[in-house]
Design brief:
The chain is an alpha+beta fold. It has eleven helices and five strands, in the order E-E-E-E-H-H-E-H-H-H-H-H-H-H-H-H. Strands 1-2-3-4-5 form a five-stranded mixed beta sheet. The longest helix is centred in the middle third of the chain and has 35 residues.
Length: 318
């Protein structure tokens, strides 16, 4: 199967594990304290309205972000619970049936909403703090263009400092290692190599479709977008920045998709390099044990995707 024909899979590092998502399912594998691996399965719901929105350029990025934030929060919550709990002899493959337990459904919906709100709140802070910092430098860097450039510089510095500081904590460092394992598995799969620990470890821990690249592109895209709107007075700049968050996110998503499409094209491949450079901070070299967890998650996803596709084919035939 050629690379073009291969299904596109995404992923996310969680606490002591990795989540992978396909067309029909998302799967997380987590290594517990007793060294066993447990799984969390979450089927993707097909909603016609959402599917139509995801086909509209610029708007599809916002929809995808909301979906990934909601789903990712559930997987992250599961991984945290599994890591903190002592082994109680439960089955090692768990499939959450949200529709059977209203109380659990409410809980998971709450987690999903919190995940989306947390993302938006974080984006708001990283957008507005640089605005006020740049305003303080106005006596030195006056003028519209200068203020936008200084604001963007502060945003970039804030982003890099934040990532570096959190990476110093043992927990986040291990999450970044699992992030590296996730990328290595995807790169190994997309290269057509056999999915073994050795082959995965030999693959790159950087990937063009990474969310880290997307975050950096929001800074770059935001700089160009902000040049088109006024910066004075301050309240106008604040309002503009808030209202333009969806616009910046939508354009940045399209830029991310573009850099992935041209990654094998000479010269154009360099468009994605800034995002890859940021991944040097957000990913770390994983251990073989961590790669094993990532492989377990991905292979479980492949198994479930294959079963679902077979079922759909049988329905069509009948």
């Amino acid at each position: 199967m050629s690379e073009v024909q291969k299904p596109v899979y995404g992923g996310q590092a969680v606490v002591e594990g990795v989540m992978f998502g396909g067309k029909h399912h998302t799967v997380t594998a987590v290594r517990r304290k007793d060294s066993t691996i447990v799984y969390y399965h979450l089927p993707r719901e097909s909603k016609p309205v959402v599917n139509r929105l995801k086909k509209i350029p610029f708007l599809r990025g916002i929809v995808s972000l909301i979906q990934s934030s909601a789903s990712g929060s559930k997987h992250l919550n599961f991984s945290t619970e599994q890591y903190e709990e002592e082994d109680d002899g439960e089955t090692q493959v768990e499939t959450k049936k949200e529709t059977k337990d209203p109380s659990k459904l409410s809980l998971w919906l709450g987690v999903a909403v919190i995940g989306v709100i947390s993302f938006l709140f974080g984006k708001l802070l990283f957008t507005l703090i640089p605005v006020f910092l740049a305003k303080l430098t106005e006596p030195i860097f006056s003028g519209h263009t200068a203020q936008v450039l200084v604001e963007s510089l502060f945003k970039l510095i804030l982003l890099l400092v934040y990532i570096y500081v959190v990476s110093l904590t043992p927990l986040i460092k291990r999450v970044f290692q699992y992030h590296g394992a996730e990328h290595k598995v995807i790169n190994c799969f997309e290269s057509g190599k056999e999915l073994t620990v050795a082959n995965v470890q030999a693959s790159s821990r950087l990937h063009y479709r990474c969310g880290s690249s997307f975050i950096l592109f929001t800074v770059i895209v935001g700089m160009f977008v902000y040049l088109l709107v006024p910066t004075d007075p301050l309240w106008v700049r604040v309002v503009n920045r808030i209202l333009l968050i969806p616009v910046v996110l939508g354009i940045a998503f399209e830029v991310l998709q573009l850099t992935n499409k041209v990654r094998d094209t000479p010269i154009l491949r360099y468009l994605g390099y800034p995002g890859l450079w940021l991944q040097l901070l957000t990913t770390k070299a994983p251990t073989d044990d961590q790669v094993e967890v990532a492989l377990a998650s991905f292979q479980e996803l492949l198994r479930m995707e294959k079963e679902t596709e077979k079922g759909l084919e049988s329905d069509v035939i009948v």
